[in-house]
Amino acid sequence: MFKLLVIDDNPSFLSDVERWLKDKYNVLKAKDIKTGISILKKENISILLLDMALPGLNGLDILKKVHEEFDPNMPVIILSDDGKVDTVVKAMNLGAADFIQKNLDVSLLHQKIISSINKRSLGLELETLKDSQDRRYDYFICKSNAMQKVNFDIAKIAGSNADVLLLGETGTGKDVIAYQIHKQSKRNNKIFIEVSLNSLSDTLIESELFGYEKGAFSGADSAKIGKFEAANGGTIYLPEISDISERIQSKLLSFMQYKEISKVGPGNAKKIKLDVRLIMASNKDLWQLVKEGKLREDFYYRINVTKINVPPLRNRIDGIENLCDYFLSISLRKHNKSGISFSSALLDEMKKYDWHGNIRELKNSIESAVVMADNGAVLTTNDFPNLTMPMVQNSGDDGTLESALAKAKINYINNLLTETNHNKTRAAAKAGLSRQGLLNILKELGIR
């Protein structure tokens, strides 16, 4: 149960607040600032209700003191006998979470408390997320000619406020490109939020992105802000935009046009104006999806304005050694290994390999090899079984169904082993096969 402290010099009002809130909060009371400060020192307070007109010290001064000396993120709701605009503005500028008059509506007070606590929790989550982002998206290496072109495009686009579309195969690092656009923009001191939509239903996507009002659906006992509102001033990244429904396409199209949202809720929810840059990504042919009726044509033309094509790894082989060195250093630190290196023959084979899984496959393959290697080892092709797998070739296709099915089978197995880091037990389970059944298929295809 959250601990709520109310500081007010009116004993009757303190008793009323305790009666209103005691079922949902552990209510602590203080009738003067000295007692209130003592409680703040001893207790882990989640939210403070603070009287604006306490004897001896202005409520705004106390608000400032609480954030400077106790908790800069503590939500403080200012209580006052009047609702003068200048007082409200001063309180909000000093970091008050909200403001309410003492002739209050109890249900409104409940809503303001819940909203303030939710915003604080979200703020702390976003702060933690922001601190970790440079580590998560830090392998932006553009030594290859193809990636230098991408870096040039990023520099041009980052300075604008344009929404952006990233196109490229799975595993090419579109998430890293998205973060680089954010990092090189004027929004770099604001939050960057990636929202994966693949596993969410339409209803969940809508509430996750745009938030919801109290009573919007069963279980919505309080309002909640969505990712767009949380990222105000910053950037939202939506990978694999091609998988969303027509309803969500329409909502995003509206946001891109007007830069405003409506929360999910009963009736007509109010419009909220936001300043959020939207970066989207897809690994699919979007125009083909338009022709198949899976993507709205107006949505396609709206997102297909400012775009970057992210090349596959096989088209930037001139930079693969730099990527290998980087991922090796990361894996050595992560698994407390040392002295491991690549043989020149291995690097030559890596440059010839198709890298169907792109950078993700390269990173996972190197980490897997490091885990299995001894300190001081020189890695060879024996440590990278994917390099010796049969790969789908563009030439030699006789056009028959049998040939196409054989290639599809090889492709599927290659992808399966890449996704499971060549763990055959996991791969078999994912494919719905017994381990021996998978081994038989590998033998049939000549895959070790």
How would you characterize this protein structure?
There is one protein chain. With 448 residues, this protein is an alpha/beta fold. It folds into three domains: 3-123, Response regulator (Rossmann fold, 3-Layer(aba) Sandwich); 137-309, 3-Layer(aba) Sandwich (Rossmann fold), CATH 3.40.50.300; 314-445, Helicase, Ruva Protein, domain 3, CATH 1.10.8. It has helices at 11-21, 33-42, 59-69, 85-93, 106-136, 145-158, 174-183, 202-210, 227-230, 246-258, 286-291, 297-303, 320-334, 344-352, 358-372, 401-419, 424-431, 435-445, and strands at residues 3-7, 26-30, 47-51, 53-54, 57-58, 76-80, 98-101, 164-167, 192-194, 235-238, 260-262, 271-273, 277-282, 307-309, 341-342, 378-379. It has a five-stranded parallel beta sheet with strand order 2-1-3-6-7, sandwiched between helices. A five-stranded parallel beta sheet has the order 9-10-13-8-14. Helix 4 links the parallel strand 6 (76-80) and strand 7. Helix 10 crosses helix 12 (297-303), helix 13 (320-334) packs across helix 15 and helix 17 (424-431) packs across helix 18 (435-445). The N and C termini lie far apart (57 Å). Mean pLDDT is 83; it is low at 391-396.
